[in-house]
Each structure stands twice: as C-alpha cells, then as structure tokens.
Amino acid sequence: MNNTITLLALFEKSTQTAEAIDDLYNLGIPDENMTVITGVPYPERSLGRHREWLTLPYIVMGGAVGGLLFGLFLSVITPHLYRLDVGGHPPVGFPPAAVITFVFTMLAIIVSTFLGVLWEMDFPRFGTAPYHRLVTDGRLAVLVECLPDLEQKVRQVVNSHQASYVGEPERLVL
Amino acid sequence: MSEFRPEPSIEPENAPEFEERLLLLEREDWEINQAVLQPMLKSGWVFWVVVILLGALVLWGLYAWGYLVYWGIGVSGKNRPVYWTLFITTFVFWIGISHAGTMISAVLRLLKADWRRPITRGAEAMTAFALMMAGLYPLIHLGRVWKFYWMIPYPNNRFMWPNFQSPLMWDLVAIFTYLIGSGLYLFLALIPDMAMARDHTEGWRYRLYRTLALGWRGTEAEWHKLHRALAIFSVAIIPIFLSVHSIVSWDFAVTIQPRWHSTIFAPYFVVGAIYSGLAALATILVIVRSGMKLQEFLRAEHFNALGKLVMVAGMAWTYFWFAGFITEWYGNEPVVRELIHEEVAGKLAPLFYLQMTANLLPIGLLVFKKVRTTPALLLVTTLLVNVGMFTERVLIVIGNLERNHLPFNWGTYRPTWVELSIVGMTFAGFALLYMLFSRIVPYVPVWEIKEGRLRYTLRRIGRLLIPTAAEIE
Amino acid sequence: MSHSAEVNHRWAMVVDLDRCTGCQACVVACHAENNVPVAGEKQAAYGRWMHWIIIHRYWEGEYPNVKARFMPVMCQQCGEAPCEPVCPVFATYHNPEGLNAQIYNRCIGTRFCGNGCPYKVRTFNWFRPEFPEPLTEQLNPDVTVRSRGIIEKCTFCVQRIRRVEIEARAQGREPQDGEVQPACVQTCPPGALIFGDLNDSNSQVSQLARSRRAFRLLDELGTDPGVVYLKGGETDV
How confident is the model at residue C237 (pLDDT cuts 50, 70, 90)? Predict the structure, then answer.
C-alpha cells in the first residue's frame, strides 16, 4: 500500500460532505481509507459512515469488578489480618464495609473509563498526523487514501460538491 | 369592550427574546473560537491586582497554618467540648460547593438540558477547586498533621492498619474518589477544546495545549469514543457525588452527640450542598461573565434556568431542615431541647436568624424573573444564600457541640485569628485557582456550544417563529 | 500482655458518692502519677484543663440555702465505647481486660473520639505540655509524657495494673483483690474509690456493684461503663 496518496478535502456543510462520501464509495474507495475530521461532533449516521464497535464498556465493567474486589478486600479481609477490637462493633460490620466497597467500585469505574477511552483512542499520540487547522474553525475534512490513478476522479467528485480546498493534508506535529 | 386585534406576525427581527437565543446561530465557528480565546490571552490590570491580593491572602493563611502546626491546635479557638470548629465547618462548606458542578455537567447532560452547555466547564472547575480546598481541612485540623499518612492503608512493619469503620476513613477515600472523578471528567470534556486552542495559539500556550490535547484531531472514531466515555462518566459520577456528602454528614451522624445523631443528616446535607453549590455557581458565573465579557455565551436564559434550580434546591433544603427540626423539637429530649433553646432564643440566636433569613429570603426573591435574569440582583441573592449556608454549617458543627449530656461539660467557643486566616486562605485560594484557570483554559466549552447549535433552527408554527431543537445525540 | 489462667479480668471502679468529700486529692494524685500537665488558669477557664479525673460540681438552690452536688468523673472504660470505632488510626481500642486503651504515639489528633464520648472525659494536648522546673523531677518514668496534638484520658493507671500482674505472674499467682490500686484509689482519704476485677464475683467491686445503691452514669445511652457509682443518702455540704 505504499504507493497510495492521501488527499484532504475541506467542506463547509454536512450535506455536501455526506454526498461527497457517497460518491467516493461509488468510486470504489473502501470505508477504512476514508476518515472524516470535524471540529464538532456530528450525529452518528449523518455522514453515511458505519458505527464503530467499542470495547470501552467491557473495560469499564472489568474495572468495576476489580474495584469491587479491592474494596471488599480492604474492608472485609484486612480487619482480620490486623485485628483490633473496638467497642460495640464487630471487626467487620455491614455498613462500613458497604461504604468502602461502594467508593472503591466507583473509583475503579471512573479511572477505568478514563484509561480505557485513552487506550481505545490510542492517546496520547504525539507525532505527525494528517490534519488541517481549519477543522476547528468549522470545516469538515475528509481524508481519502487512494491509489494515484484514482486521484483525478477523486478530485472531480470532491470539487463537484463544493470542496473549498483539495490537496495534501497539513502534516502537523500534534 | 375592547376590540381584539391580532398581533402582527413575529419575524426574527422583531422578536427580542428569540434574538438572544439564536444569537449564536448568526456566528461563524471561527468567531466563536476567537470570542472565547481572546479573554484568555489578554488580561487587564484589574485582573492582576486581584490575583496579587488573593495571593497575599493565601500566603498569610499559609503562615497562619504554619503557626498552628508549630504551636499546637491551642492557638485556634477549640476547647473541650467544642473539639471541632471552623476548620470542619469550612470543610463541609467546600464539599457542599463542589456538588453543583456535578449537578450541572452530569445530571443536566443526562437530562439533555441544552442550557447547560456554556456552563459545564466553569461548574466542573468549581467542583475540582472546591474539593482541593476541602481536602486541605482534614489535614489542617489534625493535632499531629505530620503523621497524616497513617490514614493511608499501606503494609508496614508496625502491623498497624487504619480503621475502616471510622467515618474519617470513608471521608478520605470518598473525597479522593470525587476529586479524581471530577478532575478526569473536567479533563476529558476539555480535550477537543485543547485541540482548538492548540490550533490557534503560539509559544508556551501552544506547547501546553498540544500536550494536553493528546493528539486529538476530531475523527469520527474519536468523537464517538469521547461521547461514550462522557456518557459513562455522567452516569458514574452521580452516585459518587451523592455518596460524598452523605459520608461527610456521617462524620457527625454516627456519633451519639445530641442533634448530630440524626438519620436525616445524609439527605439534608446533600440537598443543602446542591443549594449552596448552585448558588455559588451563579455567583461565579455573574462575575466571570462580566470580567471576561462572555455576555454572548452566558445569557439571560441560562441565569433564568439556574435561578429556578437554585430556588427549587432552596425549597428542598427548607423541607429537609424542617423535617429534622420538627422531630427534634417535638421529641423534647432534654439535651436536644437545651440545644434548640440555645439556637432559637439563646446565645446563638443571632446566627440562627441570620441563617434562616439568608436561606429563605432568596427563595422568595428567585420567584421573580427580574431577579433571576438581572445579573447584579442574582449575584446579591446567591451570595446571600451562601452566607446563610455557611452560617448553617457553623450552627451544626459548633453550636451543637456546646451542650451535651452532663451540664458540667458545657462550653462556649470564640474564634481566633488563626482560624479566620486559614478559612480566608481557602476562599482566596479557590478564587485564585479559578481566576488562573480561566486564563489558561477556554472557559466556555466551545465544542459543546457548537454541537448545540447544530440542533437549533427557527420554525414557523402559526403566527409564531419559534426556535426548535432537534433530537440528536 | 498478661492473661489470667481461665478468664480475663474486667477492671472496674466503684465510686461511693456517700463517702466522697470533694477534696480533689484524687485529681492531684492522678496528675502526679500520669504526668498530666497543668493547663494554667486562663486555659482552664476556657475549658482546656487536662484533668483525667475531675470532680463535677453543681450548685443547687439560692443563697443561703445553697448545696453543692459533686461527683468524680473519669473515663468510664465503656464496654461499648462510642469513642473507639471512630478513630481513623485505631489509636483507641478495647483491650481484652475491659480497658479502653489509648495509644499515645498512634494518635494523630483528629479529636473524633472527643466528640463521641458522652462523658467528655477525653482531654487534648492543645499546646506542648510544659512542666515548670521542679515538677520535671517528679515525672513518672512508667508513663509516657505526651506531646502536643494527642488525646489522652484516664487509663485506670494501666501501668500499675501491669506491674502487679507481672509481679504476680513472676511469683506464680493471680493478683489479689485490692492489690491493684490506681493513684486516685490509693490516695482517696475517705476511701470512696474502690478498684478491682468485676469478673471475680468475690471481689469488693463486684459485691458493691450488686448493691442497692448502685447506678451507672448515663446508663441509658448503652455504653456499658466500667465505673459504678453508689449513692444512697444525701451529700450535705
């Protein structure tokens, strides 16, 4: 795949972008070779792309179970390892154990959500990547990877939907 | 008999309140970016003067803290039986303030209330900084603060372990969890705006934002994952924030001290926290709006909605206060009766009436739309709420310790300069952190506003032209 | 830690209010035995006195028909102490001999236990305790001198309990009834304080605890105190 070229097209409106993407499909460019970059999140299927499957929920559930077990360990097991009696209560009582277990479960959920989403997005990623700064000023960018002989057709399609810029993406050090 | 004449059709030009609502529809994305970035990059001399003053207050407070550690807790006004005073009071107060941020960003996000969009970041920042200030107090009030790390469960050669049955341990883990949770939530929602700032700044700001943006570009996949994570966060952080203040209230409710040992403490404190926090948020928003010229983003509709929430929270607080008070008053238990007498007709009466006036009057004032939508009036009203709520904490923590089962053990309390300085330190510290935050981070969540803009159009229903919101996301 | 052969001791004290004259000799003895600092007049007036045992005094009536009611109150060594579960670092716990133990070098000074105690017998070292010159000569080497930031309270002179138990074990016997005498019990002129093992049904404290005159302070709170008060007649002072 070394001889593919990358083209970036900037659009002003979402309708133009969606139609352009449709036409690019019809040219035979597969889904993985197209990336849409926007400064604003557009609703799921508005641009005609497929919905991605996430492992994030499973990471979170795993984290929750881990937190639960750790909280149980701290509140139920450790008082027996370091035994000290206090007045009027057994070493392990339900309410304190419930509070500690609950808090550690929630902490694990939060931390595993954060780390999980970072892992799924492959963040942090500081290197050059194809991008264009006008994306944060409201443009929608479509990155297309295709073989050189399709380049002309791609440019044609994209220009027919009023792309404001077609060309090499800025390879910014992000 | 007057003649009925139908009004002329409403068009966008002669519809002032619609005009405000859809102000942002007229703006380009880059205009919004600049409107948010400019106040960050330029600060007037007033800003720096205030920062220096606050810094001086913080330094003075740190000196007072050092004085306290060196000479002993005796330099504060504590005594037997009033073992806990202004430090714990302010601790509870700050935890209370921290609850509003989560209400706005998590609860309102789940309820799909659009008016939360410009204020979520300011609210979450308020939560994070309030928690940092609150977290100082369990250290400040320790008799031997240099041994605080014994509360952390780590295996050691003394075979000593902290006591997980103690509410102070629950405090430790709960506040730690909430701080991490709200900090991560703040950061996660910040990433796209860090990318925006990265693209528009230079120098040290560029390097900072580039690091914090973690390489965000804005691909569909990234947005999808971010949304998923924020949705999980919003749901997860709600039980956390409900539990944190309940746990703090159990510091008091699990003892058998009269008037503390009450089952209503947990929901009472949570509702009081929401009341106090939302009021503080309104105060802060009014100040930031005028200081950073964000009139475009923080409009009358936002203050209107926030004011209504504060009013409802105030009514809920009144209900819980009364539910607690009526059972104590009616039961006539001797020590409780003595404590209530002290509060209502004794030495503490001025504070009690201050509390009730400052908490109830705003509820009545916020009924009026004029009060809710005029920034100056809203500022005064919400400041009054927090004066009342701080007084309420004073009465709960300090007032109820002054009497107990054996009259020989009754006591009084007088604050000292050390305590007042340290309390002032956290207020100044909070304000200082917040002001610095507003200059380093885009205060208004730009991507959320732009996302909200996608939803609104003008639609004609009969003679009216109404902004309608599309149901996306 | 010593254990008895079959069953643990439960150390208890009986305070006979009909004998107590309010002379405060017990207070002074406790200061001397346990290295309790003197707070000074100003601090004491603000509620920061350090006495581990203190005579509660109430005035009744109007002049000239004034009566003083008083009773010595020290840590009640509660069986179900509300002060124990709330300490985050286990600086106070219940030892098998029924004592509410305070570990000075573990205390980090949260003062939560002070709030939990309904008798308010826990005192806190608000400043670094100072012993003006000749008093340093009479500090008891068996008892720690506490620094600032630490809660302390009556321990039933646990150092004296241990000494008797160790000596008795060295001699191959059990401690006798009345052999263990905390400083206050030893000093009390009218003999109003009696100390012993509540688990030994023949000891003096057990017999007195079964007396008709016996009551316990704030019994209704359910703290199961280890101090029994006796009162039958009037205390006319």
Answer: very low
- Kindly provide the ipTM of the predicted complex, given to two decimals: 0.90
Q: Tell me which chain A residues have a C-beta less than 8 angstroms from the C-beta of C93.
A: 84-86
Residues of chain A with C-beta less than 8 angstroms from the C-beta of B226: 41, 117, 121
Q: Tell me whether B168 touches chain C (CB under 8 Å).
A: yes
| Domain termination site, one of A104, A120, A136 | A120
Residue B14's pLDDT band (boundaries 50, 70, 90)? low
- B274: nearest Cα among B399, B120, B385, B395: B385
CATH placement of domain C11-230: 3.30.70.20
Range of the domain at A94: 56-120
Angle between the N-to-C axes of helices B349-365 and B375-397, in degrees from 0 to 180, rounded to the nearest 10: 150
Asked if B163 lies within 8 A of C85 by C-beta distance, the reply is: yes
Task: Classify B467 in phi/psi space as left (phi over 0), alpha (psi -120 to 50) or beta.
Answer: beta
Distance from CA of C189 to the nearest CA of A (A): 33
Global pTM reads 0.92
Number of domains in chain A: 2
| Closest approach of A103 to chain C, Cα-based (Å) | 17
**Given an 8 Å threshold on Cβ–Cβ distance, is A87 in contact with C90?**
no
Q: What's the CA gap between C128 and C152, in Å, rounded?
A: 13
Positive or negative, the Cα torsion across C151, C157, C160, C164? negative
Between CA B374 and CA B394 the distance in angstroms is: 31
What domains can you pick out in chain B, each with its CATH number?
12-151+162-469 (1.20.1630.10)
- Please, what is the end-to-end C-alpha distance for chain B in angstroms? 51
Average pLDDT, chain B: 90
User: Which amino acid makes up residue C206?
Assistant: S
Question: In degrees, to the nearest 5, what angle opens at C-alpha B213 toward C-alphas B207 and B219?
Answer: 135
Which residue in C57, C88, C118 is closest to B405 by CB distance? Answer: C118
